[in-house]
């Protein structure tokens, strides 16, 4: 029941984020300090069924010690999207690696970095510049909103979201 309630909050947050595209000035989320490693652990509970169904193994390397400021539901929405995208890119059984570590710039602690890595089919070079565009998708059943909304959430926090990929890797 707790997971269902968490998913309802995540879905509500997704709807609110979609509304923000049409009314960006009217919507704000409260931010609070959080343990990013705990958010990642909790997120895996939400996607466990999908991962098990595909026979995917997740390897965690959660080394971040710094707390991050954010909204748990919004960050879970980002991480669920990234993990599901990694699962969709992986054909058959495989591995997904999730890492967290503290982010330093010129030896000054700035925040947290989270990496989600899959060993799927990769992204074509001509597609790569468009993956954060609203409504852009390469999947038949995709909406093209997941990465776009995730990008918006991370940018509102003052963060950055990037992708590195080569087709076939």
Description:
The radius of gyration is 16 Å and the shape is globular. It starts with a helix and ends in a 13-residue tail after the last helix. α1 (2-22) crosses α3, α2 (36-53) packs parallel to α3 and α3 (72-89) runs antiparallel to α4 (146-156). The chain has helices spanning 2-22, 36-53, 72-89, 146-156, and strands spanning 32-34, 56-62, 68-70, 94-105, 108-118. By secondary structure, the chain is α+β, with helices and mostly antiparallel strands. 40% of the residues lie in helices and 21% in strands.
Q: Strand pairing plus helix content: what structural class? A: alpha+beta
- What is the β-strand count? 5
Low-confidence stretches: none
| H and E order | HEHEEHEEH
Overall geometric form: globular
The separation of the N and C termini measures 38 Å
Mean pLDDT level = 86
Give the topology, please:
Layout: H1 2-22, E1 32-34, H2 36-53, E2 56-62, E3 68-70, H3 72-89, E4 94-105, E5 108-118, H4 146-156
Parallel strand pairs: 2-4
Antiparallel strand pairs: 1-3, 4-5
Helix pairs in contact: 1-3, 2-3, 3-4
